[in-house]
Amino acid sequence: MRRAAKLGAPLVVLALAASACGGGGGDEGNENQETLADIPAIDINQTDRADLQEGGTFHWGINEFPPQYQVHHTQGNLANAERIASAVLPQAHNFDENGDPYPNEDYVLSSEISDDGMTLTFELNPDAEWSNGEPITWEDYAAQVETVGGHRDNDSEFEIGDKSGYERIGDVEQGDDEYEVIFHFDEPFAEWPRLFDALYPKEYMEDPERFNEDYELAFPVTAGPFGDVEFDETAQTITVNRDDNWWGEPAILDSIVFHTYGNDALPGVMNNGEIDGFYLGYDAAAYELLSDAEGVRLTKAIDNAYRHITFNAGEGRLLADREVRNALVHAIDRSQMAQATLSGVNWTTDPTVNRLIRSTQTGFRDNSEGFGEYDPELAAQMLEDAGWTLEGEGEVRTKDGERLELDWVIPSDLQNTADEAEIAKAQLAEVGVAVNVETVPSNSYFPEYIVPGEFDATTFVYSSTNPYAGYFAENFTGPVGEDEDGNPTWGNNLHFSSTDELNEAFDELSKETDPEAYAEKANEIDRMLWEESMAVPLFQRPGIYAVNPNVANWGANGLASIQYTDIGFVE
């Protein structure tokens, strides 16, 4: 979602972890008067490498077993897939806690953009090589541009989730040698440091079959501080092992094991010492269990993610009418959802949420006025005006013989998600809207229901691995192309709808190099998204992780990139 977790998304990646909130009602009864401005940007127990033990295994708890690790594929747009890929694949740039980019010198020694924004030059690290022994050269970057940018003649055969940025590169050429690559843009792309957040070998970009299939539960070729990836489908674990052929600063750890558990099981295995860390978020029961537990530290920082309600607005769908979606937002008390969820984890229920800008970034503001307020009377009138009539109290609205009845799909083992659906169901019933809550297996939730559009409404998280507002464009723009039958394809836009105005606005945003003007444009777009009722914000996701206190350089990273080589255990 770009990736919703599908931290962009910015990676707007999809993230399962549950919750609810947003604008609407007041803060009555909430004893926590803390605001988002009071919360730090990062909390990872930062420790110098010299003070860490050499070796060891970090056991990382996750809540899904991703099926696809080609992250540019529509099914690879998952936060957990991104996290695992980041340990074993090249990333051209990293970001600090303020969201400022810098070259990842293990792969890119320097990067320079021309004054007109039309020419970008990378000086590549000549020591960098793939696990098959082949050097990483300009040809790998060129192949990725050709494929992800949709420039190939057989573009429709590649299941691309997001083309933004890559599609603007008209030509790629070798510089002075194979370790210099020059990108020529057809038009400026101000967010260029977020490109190549995961680079793949050219042979896996040139062949659609290899692109679509070869990274399914596999990493046939890697190039990171970790490699030799092992998948255990029975145990639902993914293990990445330190790569002794790594040319950069060696990883402190011997290995990282990603353990897949249901969300309801993660707190218990953490309490038993079976894992060293997991994202706790806003699980009140988990917070109560672990807040005073021996051998557990809870982080507190702003997270680069937000939770939202998503409506399927695809053509022919029940919620294709924007006015109906607007009405549903007024019918749901998002503030009540926030308080019910967040009060149990000692986190502010400050409902100020922006889809594109985090509270630690310049320009952050609430743009929900007129669209985010809880007003069931207005909601009922809007539905009436849209032609959805109500025969009597307790009845369901109808239009042309069709009932206004939503399929609200949720993943199993997420109590907060179930609570959100039940709150929405009760409140929507008050205005004559029926809700069928369908609980599906967590591992099937995204690939079989949300990505294919088999739902009317749901809640999940959009998270990002970079600080750019424009990275979320993939979640709100489109279509990105057509399938073989000529039907529009939406890539990572899980609303299956957009407008020309949104497409143009995101295009303008991506060209804006002035920080103040960039933030202003991002806020204009956020306002447009309120008008369209797209990814209706519930709350900015808490950066609460449960961590073994002996673990260093891991936890709530906020806008900063995870430094996998520096994760370790204190002496």
Give a short summary of the structure.
Keywords: Signal. With 571 residues, this protein is α+β, with helices and mostly antiparallel strands.
Describe the structure.
The strands form eight sheets. The chain has a seven-stranded mixed sheet with strand order 9-10-11-2-12-23-13. A four-stranded antiparallel sheet has the order 1-19-14-22. The chain has a four-stranded antiparallel sheet with strand order 5-6-8-7, covered by helices on one side. The longest helix has 18 residues, at 515-532. Helix 7 runs antiparallel to helix 9 (376-385) and helix 13 (500-511) packs antiparallel against helix 14. A hairpin with a 4-residue loop joins strand 9 (226-232) and strand 10. It is globular. It is built from 14 helices and 25 strands. The chain is an alpha+beta fold and 571 residues long.
List the helices and strands and how they pair.
Blueprint: E1 13-15, E2 57-62, H1 79-88, E3 93-95, E4 101-103, E5 108-113, E6 119-124, H2 138-148, E7 169-174, E8 180-185, H3 203-206, H4 208-213, E9 226-232, E10 237-242, E11 255-260, H5 266-271, E12 277-279, H6 284-290, E13 297-298, E14 301-311, H7 322-331, H8 334-342, H9 376-385, E15 398-399, E16 402-403, E17 405-411, H10 415-429, E18 434-440, H11 442-450, E19 457-463, H12 473-476, E20 481-482, E21 488-489, H13 500-511, H14 515-532, E22 536-543, E23 545-547, E24 551-552, E25 568-569
Helix pairs in contact: 7-9, 13-14
GO molecular function, one term: peptide transmembrane transporter activity
GO cellular component, one term: ATP-binding cassette (ABC) transporter complex
Signal peptide: 1-22
